[in-house]
Write a structure and sequence with these properties.
Residues 21-281 form the NADP-dependent oxidoreductase domain. This protein is α/β, with parallel strands linked by helices. It has helices spanning 32-44, 58-68, 88-99, 123-135, 149-156, 174-177, 181-189, 201-204, 210-226, 233-243, 255-263, 272-282, and strands at residues 7-8, 14-15, 18-21, 48-50, 76-81, 104-109, 139-145, 167-171, 193-197, 247-250. The protein has one domain: NADP-dependent oxidoreductase domain (TIM Barrel, Alpha-Beta Barrel). Strands 3-4-5-6-7-8-9-10 form an eight-stranded parallel beta barrel, surrounded by four helices. Bound molecules: 1,4-dihydronicotinamide adenine dinucleotide and the ligand O=CCc1c[nH]c2ccccc12. Residues 21-25, 50, 110, 145-146, 169, 197-201, 203-204, 232, 234, 249-252, 257, 290-291 line the site of 1,4-dihydronicotinamide adenine dinucleotide.
Length: 301
């Protein structure tokens, strides 16, 4: 079972603090193998699933939910709108149909790319559509993903805003800690929950170099405090994201790794000194694995 604390959303709902994503690792478009991975994730204790229209596998996620034997009310299902967000309402209805659900717990706009294209809604128009979806009860909460401060500002400045974004799902790991600070503080100020994807990227996608040594040192210290022989570096990174107050979005196709990911929620807190060490070591090479537009201060979407 999950050892991550639930995270309270600003609209009064709450979400399990760790989510199982179906957009990376060995996930592709719909097939029975994916159904198996998602069923395993539910079996080992994940209760929050992170899907997206763009991943092309909502049908498989829906099948896994139906076959899991876990009541719908005990699961928290997120999906995301886009690409090609011309008509948010039909995107949403298509996702619901594919998932075989009558509601999702959280519906996100996947990224802000589409809103300046001719024939597409503006961010504000798209958000109004999400508000209607929330008001219909078919999405319990609504939010965004990969939104920069100025993208969020466009929503927050809607004159008759009814529901602000409950969450912003963004890349988060020590390489992003400082680069993401301003956005983190902005979300905190506006009570928008951070969802952290790519949390283990430093060990998975950017291993090597000076950073590795520092992670080992901190990992050893955490293992000692936890009274364990061994703690995985990736678990320390998951703990760091949870400690930041984020909903942690991770994934795997392997049951033992899924269990390891869930167990990371019970690790002792990282000390401020350990966090500082991780951040300092990451400083020379801030880098993100996904969504380079997040560093783009020029392009309007
Ligand atoms: N909103 C968005 O634009 C994005 C959302 N996501 C969501 O987040 C989910 C998780 O994203 P990830 O970046 O994959 O999460 P992640 O950084 O936790 O990486 C998970 C992967 O790392 C592997 N891994 C973990 N620890 C490892 C270790 N010690 N050694 C080797 N491999 C290790 C896992 O087996 C898995 O393949 C996605 O499936 C998707 O649902 C991901 C990217 C973008
Ligand atoms: O969600 C972010 C990254 C990602 C993983 N799989 C796909 C497929 C299509 C668009 C984006 C992504």
């Amino acid at each position: 079972m999950s050892t991550y604390a639930d995270v309270k959303l600003p609209d009064g709902n709450s979400a399990p603090g760790v989510a199982f994503g179906v957009g990376t690792a060995h996930f592709g478009s719909d097939n029975d193998t994916i159904v198996g991975y998602v069923k395993t994730a539910i079996e080992v204790g994940f209760r929050h699933l992170d899907a997206a229209e763009a991943y092309g596998n909502e049908i498989s996620v829906g099948k896994a939910i139906a076959q899991s034997g876990v009541p719908r009310s005990e699961l928290f299902v997120t999906t995301k709108a886009g690409p090609g967000l011309k008509d948010p309402l039909s995107s949403f209805e298509s996702s619901l149909r594919k998932l075989g659900l009558d509601y999702v717990d959280l519906y996100l706009i996947h990224w802000p790319y589409d809103f300046v294209k001719p024939g597409y809604p503006t961010i504000q128009e798209a958000w109004k559509a999400l508000e209607e979806i929330k008001d219909s009860g078919r999405a319990k909460s609504i939010g965004v993903s990969n939104f920069r401060i100025r993208d969020l500002e466009k929503i927050l400045s809607i004159p008759d805003l009814k529901h602000k974004p409950a969450a912003n799902q963004i890349e988060f790991h020590p390489f992003m800690y400082e680069a993401g600070e301003e956005l983190y503080q902005f979300c905190k100020k506006h009570d928008i929950v951070l969802e952290a994807y790519g949390p283990t990227s430093p060990v998975l996608r950017f291993s090597g170099g000076e950073f590795d040594g520092v992670l080992d040192k901190v990992t050893k210290a955490v293992a000692e405090r936890a009274g364990k022989d061994k703690v995985e570096p990736s678990q320390v990174l998951l703990r760091l994201a949870a400690q930041r107050g984020a909903i942690v979005v991770t994934t795997s196709s392997k049951d033992w790794r899924m269990k390891e990911q869930l167990a990371a929620g019970a690790l002792p807190e990282l000390t401020q000194q350990e966090i500082d060490e991780l951040v300092a070591a990451a400083k020379p090479a801030p880098q993100r694995a996904f969504m380079k537009h997040m560093d783009d201060t020029n392009t309007e979407y």
